[in-house]
Write a structure and sequence with these properties.
Blueprint (H helix, E strand, L loop, with lengths): L2 H14 L8 E6 L3 E6 L4 H27 L3 H9 L4 H10 L3 H6 L5 H38 L9 H9 L3 H10 L20 H18 L2 H27 L2 E10 L4 E10 L2
Antiparallel strand pairs: 1-2, 3-4
Length: 274
């Protein structure tokens, strides 16, 4: 058999391969000569929705806890302000709004609470700022691929988006996979799978935008984790401070007069609360 004929047959096998579509796990074969199984990778839209749902869930939980604690009757709040601070109440307040527990324990000196409150505001701003930036970068590389490569990647998986950023066309990509003997990575040559960049500069710009979007989006869980950590630290600090107020000793001096012998004096009394 001639060398040219062998190459032609290999290429035809590659062209008959079917790319995974729709289901979670799709098996595909080419004339019973080659068969493999792919696991579906979340598409760009699915990733964006899941990230947005996570951000909304965290913020909704925070606002829910805050709302529940804000409905404490005004009379109860005023009564508590005139009595000893409750450590549990201080903890819950700071878990809802960092710094609130410190303000509850001592309105005259809650500098530590102001630090936690300011940190939380910065983190909330960072969370929504990163989320908006990731979406903006995503919209940019989606538009670029549509206009300069002639393909819509909004519903395509990560492997396909990477391929578009690394190769100028579907033919170039499949040719590389054939020469590398990566049979399971060949993409079926169908109209919806074809792309061709107008220039390498456009392809490189697309790749940079896509990488930046992924990098920014990956920072969101870290910021959300810092928000939770800030609340926990603030809550524990407020709880400890409230306990300190309760355990402080009270010293009182009482005048004493003994009528029998006419002596005067002072009695010191010290009490501790636990």
């Amino acid at each position: 058999m001639k060398k040219g004929l062998v190459s032609s047959q290999i290429y035809n096998i590659g062209r008959n391969l079917s790319a995974p579509t729709g289901s979670d796990s799709v098996g595909f074969c080419a004339k019973n000569a080659l068969c493999t199984t792919f696991t579906k990778i979340p598409t760009l839209t699915e990733t964006r929705k899941s990230t947005g749902n996570a951000v909304r869930s965290i913020t909704s939980l925070i606002f829910l806890i805050t709302s529940l604690l804000l409905i404490i009757p005004a009379g109860e709040m005023s009564a508590q302000s005139n009595s000893d601070p409750d450590p549990g109440g201080a903890l819950l307040r700071s878990l809802a709004v960092p710094g609130w527990g410190h303000h509850y324990v001592d309105r005259g000196d809650w500098t530590r609470g102001k630090v936690h409150l300011g940190a939380d505001l910065v983190l909330i701003g960072s969370l929504f700022g990163l989320y908006s930036r990731a979406n903006r970068l995503e919209d940019q590389f989606l538009t670029l691929s549509n206009l300069r490569a002639g393909i819509d990647v909004s519903e395509r998986d990560r492997a396909f988006r990477l391929a578009i950023g690394d190769f100028n066309s579907l033919e170039e990509y499949n040719d590389f996979q054939l020469r590398s003997r990566n049979w399971n990575r060949i993409i079926e040559d169908r109209p919806e799978n074809r792309w061709r960049w107008e220039s390498s500069d456009d392809r490189i710009k697309y790749r940079e935008l896509r990488s930046s979007s992924d990098r920014v989006r990956n920072q969101l869980p870290a910021v959300a984790g810092l928000m939770v950590l800030n609340r926990v630290i603030s809550g524990l600090s407020a709880y400890t401070r409230a306990r300190g107020v309760l355990s402080e000793g009270d010293l009182s001096l009482l005048p004493v007069y003994n009528a029998e012998n006419g002596e005067n004096g002072v009695v010191a009394r010290m009490s501790f609360r636990f």
